[in-house]
Specification:
There is one protein chain. The chain has a single domain, classed as Up-down Bundle (Four Helix Bundle (Hemerythrin (Met), subunit A)). The chain has 5 helices and no strands. Helix 1 runs antiparallel to helix 3, helix 1 runs parallel beside helix 4 and helix 3 packs parallel to helix 5.
Length: 131
């Protein structure tokens, strides 16, 4: 299997981790009745940690479709290479590092890690479009 597809499968597991961790912290704040209910009621703001985890989850959900398009695109178009594979692994490593950094509330470094992941995707998109 192409490295880009392996990275996407691992990215899907990372998405699952984002969802489960964020929901676990939300449930610890709002309770199991909220978790098992319709979630229609107004709720107080999340505590800082749960809020960071929820924002990290949303950020991953915003960027994962770009990774799917870029990484699957180069495979389908026959443009996958050692460079796209390396960029895929950089993206995954950076996104995996992003979660604990955001969880811990680490500023600046978290943003640099996000930028590194985004740059890796831009490399792959560039190859897909221009390479």
């Amino acid at each position: 299997m192409r490295a880009e597809l392996t990275v996407l499968a691992l990215g899907a597991l990372l998405l699952l981790a984002h969802v489960l961790i964020a929901v676990r912290f939300k449930t610890s704040q709002y309770g199991t009745q909220w978790n098992m209910g319709a979630r229609d009621e107004e709720l107080p703001p999340l505590n800082p940690v749960a809020g960071r985890l929820d924002r990290a989850r949303r950020n991953f959900l915003e960027t994962f479709p770009l990774a799917i398009v870029a990484l699957m695109g180069v495979v389908v178009a026959g443009k996958a290479s050692d460079l796209t594979a390396a960029a895929a692994w950089v993206w995954l490593a950076a996104r995996a590092a992003y979660l604990p950094l955001y969880w811990a509330g680490v500023p600046k470094v978290r943003t640099l890690v996000w930028a590194m992941a985004t740059l890796a995707l831009l490399v792959v998109l560039g190859i897909l479009l221009l390479g």
